[in-house]
Design brief:
Blueprint: H1 3-15, E1 21-25, E2 33-38, H2 46-58, E3 63-68, H3 82-92, E4 99-104, H4 109-116, E5 125-128, H5 132-139, H6 156-165
Parallel strand pairs: 2-3, 2-5, 3-4
Antiparallel strand pairs: 1-4
Amino acid sequence: MNRDQISEAIARVRQSSEPRIEIIDRAATSGPRLGVFASSFNPPTLAHVELIRRASEAFSLDETIAFASDTNADKLSYACSLEDRVAMMELALVDDPRTSIGLSSHAFYVDMVDALGGFYEPRTDLHFIVGFDTFERVLDPADRYTKRYYREFSGRVEALDYLFARSSS
């Protein structure tokens, strides 16, 4: 995608109240095993690239999608614009033909899981790739995030059940 197309995709994601994803750069490979990695990518780091690479190898992933967003569970502002973060992601991941680059309207995996269904086959085996900080937020023992999810859940256990029923890890 060129810069104008990326800006248009960002606008569509920003305007969506429902969980929505946009694919900016599709991987050369695809298949039933999809890794999903969301981060602020502010900026993309070698750690991000290495997490993607190691998860792809460890779980025999056919494709991984790296998502950036305007929203994040714990960040309120970014040093770089979303457009610039996408451009940096493209540079950081240029040598990885199995990684797609995307945008997500919502910050939480439990919200992304349904939006992924619009782009991937229903039987796609989802594997969420998380760093330790994200792992803590996914488990959320203090139940700080449940009220911020798009879909209404009675609590974190119900949200985790929903997420785990639709993914492998």
